[in-house]
Amino acid sequence: MGEAPQADAPFGLLAELTHRCPLRCGYCSNPVDLVGRGDELDTARWCAVFDQARALGVLQVHLSGGEPLARKDLPELVAHAAGLGCYVNLVTSGLGLTPERLAALRGVDHVQLSVQDADEAGANLIAGVRAFEPKLRAAEAVRAAGLPLTVNVVLHRLNVDHVDALVALAERMGADRLELANTQYYGWALRNRAALLPTREQVARAGEAVEAARSRSGMEIVYVVADHHEAHPKPCMHGWGARQLTVTPDGDVLPCPAAGVIDGLGVENVRDRPLAEIWHSSPAFTAYRGFDWMREPCRSCARREVDFGGCRCQAFQLTGDAAATDPVCTLSPHRGVVDRILAGAADAPVEHRAVVR
Amino acid sequence: MTAPDAVPRLRRGVKAAYDPTRESHVVLFPEGVLVLNETAAAVVGLCDGRTSVQGIAARLAEEFDGVRADDVAELVDRLVARRVVDVDG
Ligand SMILES: C[S@@+](CC[C@H](N)C(=O)[O-])C[C@H]1O[C@@H](n2cnc3c(N)ncnc32)[C@H](O)[C@@H]1O
Ligand code: SF4
Ligand code: SF4
Fold first, then answer.
1. What share of chain B is helix, strand, coil (3-state, %, to 5)?
2. Contact residues, chain A, for B30 at CB < 8 Å
3. CA A19–ligand 2 middle distance (angstroms)
4. Is B49 buried (19+), middle (13-18) or exposed (0-12) by CB count in 10 A?
5. Interface of B with A in 7-26 (CB under 8 A)
6. Beta pairing class for A244-247 and A252-254
């Protein structure tokens, strides 16, 4: 074994403050084994995580979950991260984001608000609760506070035909940016994959609708393609353990939010070791950092600097080997697995995410 | 390319800051972080919604050698493409 590749400092921390959430989205990427409140890091611990992250080079803190507003100490956590000079991004379902609550969150720089569908019935169906109206009020509160707003919509079989209406909704909500992101199949989404996967025709139409909307809307529209339908995989972050880290509600430190699924990764916890040591030398971070771990066909492929061989978590989930080429790639000997998954897509009920307390 | 009389300013939600760990000026925005070199930092500092590209070039010429309005315009183009800067006029 050679030396572990030297890591640059990370720019971003995804802080999954809690897995608790009033919504029960069937596409939720949270792990199927949800962390309960009793195992969550406490206020002091999170503040220490932010201190260590800033010292390590983190400049951007995404407060997410679960629903970050489920944490009563959110105002303190926001203030602490902002006080360190970090850009604070609140990633929220918007439930409970009243003007009063928002006013208490001093230091938030940007709000990312998720919307489930363009109309109330569709949104409530996938979220498992009545969450549509409160989101409109949350968007109003964000605008009134003068904060920049990104609306995020996870696309799947049931809403991917609604691109035009989603664009119109986001405009009505006053969004600066709209993120239309096709479902990534982790956690609950993996479980509901067959029912969430769009058809090839749906994906093609959505792509055209996004192009048309971009040319007429003043809003920035970010589109994340449906990767199973592509010939090449999505890039892994900016490379494994290169720019961002995730801390789970109970303090596990991961290279990406899905990495907990990989068996034997050697995940370490902020309760046991300083964040900087974990970033630089924990096995979970060094395993797939750089390019040395790659095998063929990735090792000699010109695209490896573009997509980093795709997603390690997806490679593990679909082939049992996290070092394999992401099977979405048509150069992968396992591409047949993805084609069979696509063939298995069907109209079926979506199971709601579990409730955790 | 951005016109010499165009007036750039930081977009809503974009913050310019100094990062002591990297000893560099940075801009922070929803999608990420840009680490700036000295010239870029000086240009970003003057993207105030009042100073034109020409004006920025003139101000920079007081501090650095060989600053051309074209170079400033090109840098502003790149900042616009990264959605860090908006341009009026
Ligand atoms: C897990 S959520 C947590 C924050 C908050 N509860 C919310 O939904 O906005 C974080 C972000 O991931 C998005 N998301 C959830 N499941 C996803 C999936 N399977 N694929 C892609 N994005 C997903 C959500 O829309 C949200 O923008
Ligand atoms: S995606 Fe839905 S269920 Fe998952 S955390 Fe966000 S709002 Fe809750
Ligand atoms: S072979 Fe590997 S590096 Fe090349 S395109 Fe496929 S996944 Fe990407």
1. 35, 30, 40
2. 89, 109-110, 112, 148, 150, 177
3. 9
4. exposed
5. 12-13, 15, 17, 19, 21-22, 26
6. antiparallel
Tell the burial category of B63 from Cβ atoms under 10 Å away from its Cβ (0-12, 13-18, 19+). exposed
pLDDT of amino acid A5: 55
pLDDT in tens, B36-78: 999 899 999 999 999 999 999 999 988 888 888 888 899 999 9
Residues of A in contact with B25 (CB under 8 A): none
Model's pTM, two decimal places?
A: 0.96
- DSSP assigned state of A106: T
- Chain A closest CA to B46's CA: distance in Å? 21
Provide ipTM, 2 decimals. 0.91
Cα(A14) to centroid(ligand 1), Å: 12
**pLDDT tens profile A267-314:** 999 999 999 999 999 999 999 999 999 999 999 999 999 999 999 999
Cβ atoms A189, A196 nearer than 8 A: yes
DSSP-derived 3-state class of residue A344: coil
pLDDT value at position A2?
44
Distance from CA of A347 to the nearest CA of B (A): 34
Catalogue the E-assigned strands of B1-89.
7-10, 15-19, 24-29, 32-36, 85-88
B50 part of contact set with chain A, CB < 8 Å? no
Q: Does B81 touch chain A (CB under 8 A)?
A: no
Element (H, E) at A207: helix A200-216
Domains assigned to chain B: 7-84 (1.10.10.1150)
pLDDT above 80 (res A224): yes
Q: Which among A71, A114, A116, A125 is the best mutation to test ligand 2's pocket, defined by most ligand atoms within 8 Å of the CB?
A: A114
Q: Which residue of A has its CA nearest to B26?
A: A59
